[in-house]
Structure formats: structure tokens, C-alpha cells
Design a protein that fits this description.
Blueprint: H1 21-32, E1 37-40, H2 48-59, E2 63-66
């Protein structure tokens, strides 16, 4: 748990490494929508999926910040 009181959720623990990208993204987005915000990892801009998640989260009004800024 972060000192801010939030409990991090990592959707990759719910997704098999053998999962097709589109299906994995659907799962990750469903999980993200249940959260209060999104913590962006340092190299998030190198990930197609992370860029989609960040844009969608911003558009939906979720709190989106670098992971270090959640602490």
C-alpha cells in the first residue's frame, strides 16, 4: 500500500503471458476502470498498451500520475 492510502493493482497478474494482446488489453482496461487512478511506470511511453490505458484513463477523469508521485 502506498503512503497515500491506495492499494496498487497490477492487472498483469490476471493475464497469462500467452494471452493475445487484444484480449489482455480488454482485461487490463476492465480492471483499470475499477480503480481510482493509474500509476504510470517509468518507461510507460514505450508501451502501446500503457499509452492507450493512460489516454483512456485521462479521458474518463481518473487520476493519472507517475508511480513515484503516488507515494
Amino acid at each position: 500500500m502506498f503512503s497515500s492510502g491506495y492499494e496498487p493493482v497490477n492487472p498483469t497478474v490476471l493475464i497469462s503471458s500467452k494471452e493475445e494482446w487484444q484480449k489482455a488489453m480488454k482485461t487490463a482496461i476492465r480492471v483499470m476502470l475499477l480503480c481510482d487512478g493509474v500509476a504510470l511506470l517509468p518507461d510507460w511511453k514505450k508501451s502501446k498498451g500503457a499509452k492507450i490505458e493512460a489516454k483512456l484513463a485521462c479521458e474518463l477523469g481518473l487520476d493519472v500520475r507517475e508511480a513515484k508521485d503516488w507515494k
